Amino acid sequence: MSEPLLATRALTKRFGGLTANSDVSLELRKGQVHALLGPNGAGKSTLINLLSGDLPVSSGRIVYRDRDITRLGPHQRSRIGIGRSYQKTNIFGPFSAFENCRLAAQSRQPRPWRIFSDAQAVPAVRRAAEAALEAAGLTAVADQPAASLSHGAQRQLEIAMVLATAPEVLLLDEPLAGMGADEAHRMVELLRKLGPDHAMLLVEHDMDAVFAVADVITVMVNGQVLESGPPAQIRASPAVRQAYLGDDDGPPGAEGAAAPRTGGAGGRPS
To answer: What's this model's pTM, rounded to 2 decimal places?
Structure first.
């Protein structure tokens, strides 16, 4: 088994008297899709925000390639190879899909930018933007305004923008949110395509998608890790069924299983 690219050690986040994450330890490896499950309020999005640097850590450590990055900010983590997407689509609507990716790729070029210089004329930037669009399956709509794209294509574009920054680690927060069946299928295929070349943490409520792409699944409840292991182990776990589904009618993702609960636990951040 390969060494982890990104790992947490007893990671904890407190908001005053509320503990959103408590002693969370996990490891992300290249070529592995690591899914994070749990009911609303389990602390999943809080954990991604800690990993990306959008939230400061209360205690514990975050290690990237044997380097302690616990105190690095979001832009610093992005520069060393950690990319993330958000629950809410985060794109530049008036700009074309290509321009969105070009701006992301441009942020990686170690050169001063002059007011009257043509960023599109920089070969490395253009190549990175085009490669990201191709990887996300968006070459055909490269010249279309981002705002005119379908919801699913906009979510793909957000991932393309992340890819344009050449990340090793992908932190994806509910990339299938709000999608119909066809769009969800395309996103699942994209995640499968990206899996071998990245270490991926996937937060997602679409259980079919999770079990279709995940190599490892970690289940969180009340800010703590309940269980972690391969999909077959999680699917068969009585503790996971009880915590995530609220009953023992069937394993997560199984046909006929009860739907996941949507109510958070005591207002705990998701």
So the answer is: 0.87
Sign of CA dihedral 130, 135, 140, 144: negative
Question: Of 124, 150, 166, which one is at a domain's C-terminal end?
Answer: 166
Q: Are residues 158 and 73 in the same domain?
A: no
What is the chain's pLDDT, residue by residue, as a tens digit (270 residues)?
A: 678 999 999 999 999 999 999 999 999 999 999 999 988 889 999 999 999 999 999 999 999 999 999 999 999 999 999 999 998 888 999 999 999 999 999 887 665 555 555 556 678 899 999 999 999 999 999 999 999 999 999 999 999 999 999 999 999 999 999 999 999 999 999 999 999 999 999 999 888 999 999 999 999 999 999 999 999 999 999 999 887 656 555 445 543 333 333 333 333 445
Does 233 lie in the same domain as 265? yes
Domain hosting residue 252, numbered range: 1-81+168-270
